[in-house]
Write a structure and sequence with these properties.
By secondary structure, this protein is of the alpha/beta class. It has two domains: 122 residues, Aspartate Aminotransferase, domain 1 (Alpha-Beta Complex), CATH 3.90.1150.10; 222 residues, Aspartate Aminotransferase, domain 2 (3-Layer(aba) Sandwich). It is built from 13 helices and 13 strands. A seven-stranded mixed beta sheet has the order 2-8-7-6-5-3-4, with helices on both faces. Strands 9-10-13-12 form a four-stranded antiparallel beta sheet, covered by helices on one side. Strand 6, helix 8 and strand 7 form a beta-alpha-beta unit. Helix 6 packs parallel to helix 7. The termini are far apart.
């Protein structure tokens, strides 16, 4: 007797593989593979999290009322146009669940967030990967791929794992040249790190559109990765649809109160940005000095290209670092076999990883 069979596209589904957390034979590893906060979480967020422990018997606020109000105040947006989720990944899934039927197409750039094809295929959609340009999303290539079957475009801006961005004028050009029935998802997971005058995370575009969804996360700058908190901002009609299909009580109370506290901790935000600014510049210059090719980044990570000759390959460097307890992200599955992605760490970690890469290049 045979058991139940899943839908055919589920059987072929790839599984998201996170960054390694440990190395064989090393008691204490340094994890620089998942773009986590170098400074941990906001002290105010930690205190709020601990203070919620006595209320664990209560269901969370299903509407995330206070959290949405805090987000609305911080970004001067309408709380009724916000949906909260278990990481921004959940918002991406809600979008696919709401707007895809089997056979519909979803466009995204090559060398982009690996969840895009996974969430697309998970709802029977057809992933359409388009070429980027110099590790950066290319609007012309995206527009050229639009067809009658296109329902969603995922745009990671800044992009992960390359660390690049496209300016606001290019995002708007993309929006202006797609049909109104295509949902443009502007994924701003790393938006808080960007310090470029021509960058916008998507708030202004949402305000004048009916087919743009901006997604954000608390996992990066705010250091709340373990709590899995994300949010989306769109016109009221889109938010109402997403809100109607999300699970009830999807965001735990402890996550909500920690997120609210993190939004209030402006001192921690600036400290985190200043740390990232200093060490992004330090590592970029240091990597160039030893003969490596860092892709210009506006995020809390750097994609490092290796010469791929005379033994100086990304794979060899990855093995060299792992044996010394340092975990970076090697991404051959995304066509980046010649690169390692390095998360900005603490001062000691940054100095040590550059020292080890210098030793690797000189051996």
């Amino acid at each position: 007797m045979s058991g139940p069979k899943p839908r055919p596209w589920i059987e072929k589904l790839d599984v998201y593989v996170g960054g390694k957390s440990r190395t064989d034979g090393i008691a204490k590893s340094v994890k620089l593979s998942s773009n986590e906060s170098a400074l941990g979480a906001s002290p105010m967020a930690v205190a709020a999290y601990l203070g919620e422990a006595e209320r664990l018997h209560r269901y969370p606020d299903a509407a995330c009322y206070d959290l949405r109000a805090a987000l609305a105040k911080k970004y001067d947006i309408d709380p009724g146009q916000i949906v909260c989720g278990i990481g921004s990944d959940e918002i991406l899934k809600l979008a696919c669940r709401a707007y895809l039927t089997p056979g519909d197409e979803v466009i995204f750039s090559k060398h982009s967030f690996m969840m895009y094809p996974i969430v697309t295929a998970g709802f029977g959609g057809v992933p359409v990967e388009v070429d980027d340009r110099d590790f950066t999303s290319d609007v012309d290539n995206i527009l050229a791929a639009v067809s009658e079957k296109t329902r969603i475009i995922f745009l990671a801006n800044p992009n992960n794992p390359t660390g690049t961005y496209i300016p606001a004028r290019e995002v708007e050009r993309l929006w202006q040249n797609i049909p109104g029935d295509i949902l443009l998802v502007v994924d701003g997971a790393y938006a808080e790190f960007v310090e470029k005058e021509d960058y916008r995370p998507g708030i202004e575009l949402v305000r004048k559109s009916r087919n743009v969804l901006m997604t954000r996360t608390f996992s990066k700058l705010y250091g709340l990765a373990a709590l899995r908190l994300g949010w989306g901002y769109a016109c009221g009609e889109i938010i109402a649809i997403l809100d109607s299909i999300r699970d009830p009580f999807n965001v735990p109370s402890v996550t909500q109160v920690a997120g609210i506290a993190a939004l209030r901790d402006s001192d921690f935000e600036e400290k985190a940005r200043a740390h990232n600014r200093e060490w992004l510049n330090y590592l970029t210059a240091g990597l160039q000095a030893i003969g490596l090719y860092p892709v210009p980044s506006v995020t809390n990570f750097i994609l490092i290209r290796f010469p791929e000759k005379d033994g100086k390959t990304a794979e060899a460097a990855n093995d060299f670092l792992l044996k010394r307890g340092y975990i970076l992200r090697w991404l051959p599955g995304q066509g980046l076999h010649h690169c390692l992605r390095l998360t900005i760490g603490t001062e000691d970690q940054n100095r040590d990883v550059l020292r080890l890469l210098t030793e690797f290049m000189e051996q």
